[in-house]
Design brief:
The complex is a heterodimer of chains A (about 325) and B (about 325). With about 325 residues, chain A is of the alpha/beta class. Chain A has helices at about 5-10, 15-20, 35-40, 55-70, 85-90, 135-140, 145-160, 180-190, 220-230, 245-250, 255, 270-280, 285-290, 300-314, and strands at about 45-50, 75, 95-100, 165, 200-205, 235-240, 295. Chain A is built from 14 helices and seven strands. In chain A, strands 1, 2, 3, 4, 5, 6 and 7 form a seven-stranded parallel β-sheet that branches. In chain A, strand 2, helix 5 and strand 3 form a beta-alpha-beta unit. Chain A starts with a helix and ends with a helix. With about 325 residues, chain B is an alpha/beta fold. Chain B contains twelve helices and seven strands. Chain B has helices spanning about 1-20, 30-40, 55-65, 80-90, 130-135, 150-165, 185-195, 230-240, 260, 270-280, 285-290, 300-310, and strands at about 40-50, 70-75, 95-100, 170, 205-210, 245-250, 295. In chain B, strands 1, 2, 3, 4, 5, 6 and 7 form a seven-stranded parallel β-sheet that branches. In chain B, helix 8 links the parallel strand 5 and strand 6. Chain B is globular, with a radius of gyration of 21 Å. The two termini of chain B are about 30 Å apart. The chains are: A alpha/beta (about 325), B alpha/beta (about 325). The interface between A and B is medium-sized, with 27 and 29 residues.
């Protein structure tokens, strides 16, 4: 008997779909296909912590979010000075998902890191990455140098954290121009690492209230509202967790110092990032909503599987 | 005996006259012979490793503001170098040395060379942990140890970067002494020091090293901390035995923070380095320095002593 699987996907009852899955005709990955999910009414959520490897306190914050909250994965900056610390500690936490936070910038004024490769057109006058993507683009980097650097970061993380499951561009730079985006997509396919944020089946939860400062409960109010209203589907939530430590307190960059909306004393990076841990990741109300609504916090394996499904959609 | 003394006095007199008429230049003031007669002890206390962790420079700054520390040695490829540049720029009274680095010894945090130097890095691209790792490493081509041309390029890059960003940098002091550890390294470092007008700390008989801690285990307490008061007592004993002259003491101050503890979790680096800050600001040490009339030498005086000792004039 010949079956056209797509016919069932769109028109047949869920029971029949499940039967098809059971008999193994379509394989496991169908479980994560967006169409299937919308019918099943499930909400699935991948919660990430960014910038791991830049400061050890960022990973400390993420681990709190993992052990006491809803965080399930981290995105790692390979050229960051604390990358060895991340390699070591993530190897002791096999349940934590890992993405490559592919980096072409080094944004803090006080702490800087250079590219892995010796590529003159992607460095500032002191040899570090440029501060922001716009500066890199303005300096018209040699795309062959950019490619070499991206490959180096991919190959190092694959070797040192073999379970790396996806690529997520640091500050969006690696997808910020058509040229950069094409390059990053090409490498993502070549290395079989899906690019988070490019798959329409996994939508970003992105609300201005989540990125605000933290002298109030804006982040808490925003995330609670977002999670209460979330429609069935698969989502990812990017956070920037950190503990409040002297070195994180010190970090700042040009963008924050001329930030018009910043109230005096409220723009401290440690406060802002600690709020991601306290108001979002380990907030008891957030944990309660996740439980009540049956929101499934995706494990690393589930996230990779969902994203791998996404690769085929591209 | 008297004639020798008289001759010395006479020579000193001639020397002083020479200085006065400007024939020899003012740097001679710091020459050892002159000092022995003046009877003064001059002391330069430095804090190493600024630029690697924020808490290293934080510890040094505390020891400068409240204690006897007068200079820091900066690691240019360290990730916090930009912070060190800005803060040392705001603190003109503190002396600055280049802590010339060919190694990256911590576990949690590592840094890479400024230049492309395949024979100087481990398989992950970082500077090796320790000098012997660098010297014994066999690279893909079968070569053992580093290519000296690469080492020279890296040293030049560090020197030029610090001269560009902290122009008052006054000397070179090798991180973990690696740049002095073989005859080839040493002559290379000496050549570059001469070329860039940066004397090498630790090579001049005019400026001798007085250790502050010889063996850390002597000061260990059962609770994992270190007894800074005992460190101070031992250091005072050491200083008390010095003949007049100019001396330097290398320290590794840091605040006790999670950042420092994470550098090597099984190590007690935060306990040792924070004990050093307590020692450097200890009131008993401050009082001794005052009573004995020890001059905590300003950086420019240390340079004078170094230049007198190495013939840079």
């Amino acid at each position: 008997m010949k079956i056209d699987p797509t016919r069932f996907l769109h028109s047949e009852p869920a029971a029949l779909r499940r039967a098809i899955i059971c008999i193994g005709l379509l394989g496991l990955s169908l479980l994560s296909a967006p169409a299937a999910e919308q019918h099943s009414g499930k909400i699935r959520l991948l919660v990430c912590g960014d910038d791991i490897g830049v400061s050890s306190a960022f990973l400390d914050g993420a681990i709190q979010g993992y052990q006491h909250g809803i965080l399930r994965s981290v995105n790692v900056v390979v050229p960051g000075p604390w990358f060895p610390d991340a390699v070591q500690r993530l190897s002791e936490m096999p349940g934590m998902g890992v993405g490559l936070h592919i980096a072409l910038t080094s944004e803090w004024d006080q702490l800087k890191y250079p590219p892995l490769t010796f590529s003159p057109t992607i460095r500032d006058e002191n040899g570090y990455f440029f501060e922001f993507g716009a500066q890199l683009v303005r300096h018209r980097p040699d795309m062959a140098e950019v490619e070499r650097e991206l490959r180096a970061q991919i190959e190092v993380i694959k070797r040192r954290i073999p379970r790396v499951g996806w690529i997520w561009p640091h500050m969006g730079v690696a997808t910020s121009t058509p040229e950069l985006r094409n390059l990053t997509l090409r490498l993502a396919r070549e290395y079989n690492l899906p690019l988070l944020g490019t798959d329409p089946g996994i939508k970003s939860i992105n609300s201005p209230g989540l990125a605000t400062l933290s002298d109030d409960q804006t982040k808490a109010r925003t995330i609670v509202k977002v999670l209460k209203e979330l429609q069935p589907g698969t989502y990812f939530l990017i956070t920037h967790p950190s503990l409040d430590t002297p070195e994180v307190r010190k970090l700042s960059h040009a963008a924050s110092s001329d930030c018009k909306a910043c109230r005096p004393g409220a723009g401290n990076l440690a406060d802002t990032r600690l709020a991601d841990v306290q108001q979002i990741l380990t907030n008891p109300e957030v944990i309660q909503i996740v439980k009540e609504r049956g929101i499934e916090l995706m494990t690393a394996a589930q996230a990779v599987q969902a994203l791998q499904g996404g690769v085929r959609h591209q | 005996m008297n004639s020798t003394r008289n001759r010395d006095f006479a020579l000193a007199g001639i020397r002083r006259a020479g200085v006065c008429i400007g024939l020899l230049g003012f740097c001679l003031l710091a020459a050892p012979a002159a000092e022995q007669h003046s009877g003064k002890i001059r002391l330069v206390v430095c804090g190493d490793d600024a630029g690697v962790a924020l808490s290293f420079l934080d510890g040094a700054m505390q020891a400068y503001r409240q204690g006897v520390l007068r200079c820091v040695n900066v690691i240019v490829p360290g990730p916090w170098f930009p912070d060190a540049v800005r803060r040392l720029g705001e603190t003109p009274g503190i002396g600055v040395g280049l802590h010339l680095a060919l190694t990256s010894e911590w576990d949690g945090l590592r840094y890479r060379p400024l230049t492309s130097a395949p024979t100087m890095v481990d398989p992950n691209g970082y500077l090796f942990h320790f000098g012997p790792d660098l010297l014994k490493h066999r690279s893909a081509t079968g070569r053992v140890g580093p290519d000296l041309a690469e080492v020279e390029r890296e040293m030049r890059a560090q020197i030029e970067m610090i001269k560009g960003r902290i122009p008052r940098v006054a000397w070179i002091w090798p991180h973990q002494l690696v740049a002095y550890s073989t005859p080839e390294f040493r002559s290379l470092t000496e050549r570059l020091g001469k070329e860039y007008g940066l004397p090498l700390l630790g090579t001049s008989p005019a400026l001798q090293d007085v250790p502050i801690v010889k063996k850390w285990s002597d000061f260990a307490r059962k609770d994992g901390t270190y007894d800074s008061a005992a460190i101070v007592r031992a250091y005072i004993k050491e200083l008390d035995s010095l003949k007049p002259g100019t001396y330097f003491t290398i320290t590794h101050p840091a605040l006790d923070t999670q950042e420092v503890r994470a550098l090597r979790p099984q190590d007690d680096v935060a306990a040792r380095r924070s004990a050093m800050v307590r020692a450097l600001i200890d009131p008993e040490l401050m009082e001794f320095v005052k009573q004995r009339g020890i001059e905590l030498v300003t950086p420019d005086k240390a340079i004078q002593a170094l230049q007198a000792g190495t013939g840079h004039k």
